[in-house]
Amino acid sequence: MSDQEHVYAGLSEQDVAQRVQMGQINTVSLTTSRSLVSIIRANVFTLFNGILTVAALIILIFGHVQDVVFSVVMIVNAAIGIFSEWRSKRTLDALAIVDAPRAHVRRSNGIHELGIEEVVLDDLIEVALGDQICADGILLESQGLEVDESMLTGESRPVRKKVTDQVLAGTSVVAGKGLIRATAVGEDLYAQGIARQAREFSVAVSEIQTGVNHVLRAISLAILPIVVVTVWTQTRIAGEGFHGTWATALVLAVAAVVGMIPQGLVLLTSMNFAIGAAALARKNVLVQELPAVEILARVDALCLDKTGTLTTGGIRVSSVLTVNSQYAEKDVRAVLTALNVDSTNPTAEAIAQYYADEKPLTDPQHTVVAFSSARKWSAWSAPTHGTWIFGAPELVVTQTQVLEQVSAIADTGRRVVALVHADEQILGEELPATRQAVALVILEEELRDDARETLQWFADQEVRVRVISGDNPRTVAALAHQLGLMGPDGQAARACDARDLPADLHSQEFIEAIRDHDVFGRVTPEQKRAMVSALQSENHCVAMTGDGVNDALALKEADLGIAMGNAARASKAVAQIVLLDGRFSQLPEVVARGRRIIANMERVSALFFAKTTYATVLVLLTALLSWRFPFLPRHYTYIGSLTIGIPAFFIALGPNTRRYISGFLSRTLSMALPAGFIMACAALGVNWWIGGGSPQAATAATVTMMAGGLWLLSITARPLVLWRVILLVTVAGSAIGGILLPPTRAFFALMWPTPDTWMVILLVSLCECALIEAAYRLNMYIAHRKDSLTQRM
Hints:
eight-stranded mixed beta sheet, alpha/beta, 16% strand
């Protein structure tokens, strides 16, 4: 009795219990998305939160509760990040539950439909068309079993399996059926080996957040000396003014430190990212990490997996070519419809769809030989019509000329199936000796309708696209050609067989090969990751799209990983963005959203970094001159909310189509540093003029700082369209109104200035605003000169 005829008995209940006890179960620890604990940890335990928490505790112990208003920013910022990312996690987890596959397991007491986590080692698993294989195993029985392994290898064509062949979890049955013995489950699966390497979630790095973190690190190093110097100087002059104690001096020191922190920028960045993520969610684009909204704005190298990204994963009939004029086209259509009336494999489905309105050839005495992967052909035969055979050209076609034509078509990356006719009746599984080729059915992968347009959009945006696939290089190159993919020089995309790449994935030769080609085939998962690293080594910001387990390593390595909605769990777990509906055309929207955010955030960042600058200068000058520090923490809150925080929020949401330009931090600081220095000197000058240490002097310094901040805001808001003018007038009116209203004035420890104080404020503020305007114009002139020199070079 052959293996194929053998009746295999499944495990007994005792066998299953023993394996469960030994941990030989099909449970894996890699979830679809990040855990709630990791989301909370990432948003709570930050340098920003650490500095503000310590500052708030000191104020609560030694100062007034009104001075802890700044801590609200920290709480709101963390809450926004946690809520947005938790909502994304819930969406992905819900999808995982809906999509979770089931398994038909043969055991000694019958066949059971089980969740894949209930499968144990050595279980017998029955698989049929449409099933997803849930465990690695050996094929014990096969009836024309064909498996789609694209999720693991990238190879788009189904692989025919025979008895004793290995099958892998994560692959899908596209034809036939079989019986598998599970030889590896759970963490021992082949797919899990790749997933383990990608298990650590890669954190998306925002340039805005990176710039803020550079400032925070500098502040964190300066905190201790600033606190010591401020406490010492303020205590030393304690008898010269109000509240002269070391505790008050400590509160003033905290005010200095808090003023240096661009806390509003941190909050506004998170809010902008959250709003962007919510807008994208309405378009079925799921953002797992908020900074990912910005990153694609910086991407200049986009690596695309072919299957599932540029193609739907299915195949379609490109054309039917008649090669024998003796047969009418209508007869060919009728015969092909009859041969593929039962859509039991992807080829039959494609032809049935192509001839959806065609009536099949019929004959009461006809016989059918069903398609078999083993023999690679099917047949329809009737006494009055002869025998029609449909299958692989190399097996059914005998004419050399036709085979040469098939070879030429195959060179374009398309697949060919031949229709031949014989006068003789078919006997068993033996083909008639004399056969005439009648037609060639040309099949190609089904391209996404939006792929060509989207690729052209990226080309227009100067983002270089590379197609990286595990499929045949010839097939990938042909597909790239169909989509109009071009190299950076405007020439046709250059293809490379990854098997010819240098073995040393870190060598200069490997990097140069990646740089010089646009299409890669037969790429292994390790090579995909190395390709991303090679591009990053040449200072490219790299985005990677994919859906298979074989893409997980590259998705993790990339600056931005983008997974399709039907992607493997490992891929969705490490990607920062998931296209839930799998539409490649959503990427331009993501890019546009990211560009608007980073362009607008750069516009308002000068406001926040100017605050950091003037707070730092105030600390240094008051210590150097042994002057009383003029501000309480609540004064900074008042100034910052009206001249920076509230107006910056509205400006940051405005339209902006500017492309990303590198050098965000340097451009921002070039304006923020001089403006902040001017504002600090103006505030200290007024404070000294009025008489430092008095509430009147503190009020004068606050109003003068407010005037400089509003002028800098007007520069940031240019060009001054109507809604921005209204915004400026509103915040200026609120600044004066806050001093007019007794409750607000009392809360922020301010008082109504005397006429003499108003004169001083007006004079110094005019000089302050003129100097800020001069600094802005000088900065614009230098930037223009630099751009002109760059263009000439």
